[in-house]
Amino acid sequence: MTSPLRTFLLPACACVLASHLDAQPGLRYTAADPHETLMTVTHVQVPSKVYNTARDVSVWLPSGLPKTGVRYVVLVFPDAEEKTQFRAALANIQFLIDRGLVPPIMVLGVPFLANRMHELSPSATGTTAQRFPQAGGADQTLQFYADELLPWADAHYPTLPTRILAGHSLGGLIALHAMVTRPDVFRVVIAMSPAVYWNDGAFSKLAAAHLAADTQRERTLFVTSGGLEVGGLQGPIDIATTTFTDQLRAALDSTHNTTLRFERRTYPKDEHDVTPMPSLVDGLRMAFEPMVVPIDSVFLQLSNTHTEDSAAIHQVARDLESRYATAAKSLGIPTPFPEAPLDVLGSYSLSVKHTGLATTLFRENLDHYPHSANAHESLGEALAAGGDTTHAVTELRTAVTIGEAEMRATNSILVWANDRDIIAAARSQLHQLHHDSPASSGS
Predict the structure, then answer these.
(1) Whole-angstrom Cα distance, residue 96 to residue 281?
(2) Which domains does the chain have, with CATH numbers?
(3) What is the Cα–Cα distance from 81 to 208, expressed in whole angstroms?
(4) CB within 8 A of 342, min separation 6: which ones?
(5) Splitting the chain (443 residues) into consecutive groups of 10 residues, what average pLDDT does each group show?
(6) Closest CA to 194 of 214, 216, 179, 209
(7) Are 62 and 100 in contact (CB under 8 A)?
(8) pTM for this one?
């Protein structure tokens, strides 16, 4: 329990922070190797009866997570042959995971096999068929995704049933096509500048009607376009996306559909090749926003209203947990309530002298996160405040042990600094309890 409010340090502060830490006796952060690999992608060959060959797939797992017990949401990313876009996507997903804005996500990057236009497009009619005579392979591609790629991922990795399809341009078109033709496969679809002008606008009208008519499945759709996508080789994407949005919203209203969460975002200054960068970040944030616990604003509300009633504080905790559980169930992500919110509410309870409630909240946190140095340290503080010295000492010493182990193992200065502060708080408490004297962590 190093602070009632969480503090995020920007990477730009790293050199200053490292300098400060190095000045402390007995504490030194070891800089990373100058040739450090920031991102690792594994190439695998996934057997495919659909294509009668093996498909090259790039598998990416986020770093900095516990080595055991993690299960992944699976995101399928067409257009992985476009390396700059793919690298940007992975870096942004890692950032969102690190900030607790999305759950752990593994990414399956799928480059096209032979002909991108064919593999990512539905069958074509009218002027679209004349313009793109090779179109029409989307159903085969989706069969590979649904019946071969995702089962392969389930067999080789600890996955969750939650699937995301995030595609750009033709990739966005096949993502929308998947929602219509394979509605049970992808819980979340992010269609970035999709080619919804397809089939002279008939695809747009058909997709809107199908999506609105499905009032049983809970799904999320995030659609984007750039303000400068008004013509050119890609077609009038911004205009067509506006038409699709109007059609879908009208259809949702007429069917009273409440199961589809839909948002359209426009980036007025962006051209076609730029929209994937903001679209993926915003789409993932929109999809998982119901699971984000607004603890900072809740803490400020409690502080500003000088709330000191233990029942009221406890009710705030229960309301947040209930909201989170509902969202997690809807998204198919059975994860425990996040650690930080209960830690903040426990800290607040302790500050207004409700030691019993603080202890209850901290114990609940420790049940969910038994390997967290912070959870042990927070409970130790509450136990000490309540006079349970024996058990407080046990929790505080455990916090030091876990924190020191993490400091030795991590190559993240943010994790290292956080553990350093937790250890310092635990040792300070132990010193006050006359069981240990303050000392450096020895790391």
Answers:
(1) 8
(2) 11-33+294-432 (1.25.40.10), 42-291 (3.40.50.1820)
(3) 30
(4) 317, 361, 362, 364, 365
(5) 40 33 48 70 96 97 85 96 95 93 96 96 95 96 98 97 97 98 97 95 96 96 92 73 96 96 96 95 97 93 92 95 94 90 95 95 95 96 95 96 90 83 94 64 44
(6) 179
(7) no
(8) 0.86
